[in-house]
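Q: what does this look like with 2-acetamido-2-deoxy-beta-D-glucopyranose bound?
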Amino acid sequence: MPVWGALFLLWAAAEAAEDCPAPCTCQALETMGLWVDCRGKGLTSLPALPAHTRHLLLANNSLRSMPPGALDHLIQLQTLDVTQNPWHCDCSLTYMRLWLEDHTPEALLDVHCASPILATIHPLGHLTGYELGSCGWQLQASWAYPGVWWDVAMVVVATMSLALLAGLLCAATKPLY
Ligand SMILES: *[C@@H]1O[C@H](CO)[C@@H](O)[C@H](O)[C@H]1NC(C)=O
């Protein structure tokens, strides 16, 4: 039995070392899965994470954003520590917020945003949709640009219609001899 135990530990250590992202340290858990510790590594973006990551520690880094869907392939992930990072809490951070809300809602109270100003007043878990910057608003802003050309087109069409109408009226009111 001790032989199997030692073999397992060896296998687990090899497995853990295999796809551990460079700046982090990884430890295989007895229950399978990985403990991935990336605390205080000056990370500015998420490292490539092993698929069997179960506990992910990202505290004390320089992370500002997490791409939506970034954790979707980590189906075993149970805990995520993202405290002490300069998060930019706009609409795109909604993904991370929802992930935390689903898995460890209490952790949301320890996550603070560094920007924008409006989002720094409460922990991430207490920010309203307005403070977080609503996604719908950004969509409307992107629609506003073609809107200008739509307005111009409408003015042109309206002017041409008026000219045509005036012409028709002139023709119609011309006395017939
Ligand atoms: C955060 O990480 C830096 C290295 O990037 C380290 O020097 C510092 O002690 C860490 N701070 C805390 C509170 O863990």
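The first strand starts at residue 25 and ends at 28. The two ends are 119 Å apart (CA to CA).
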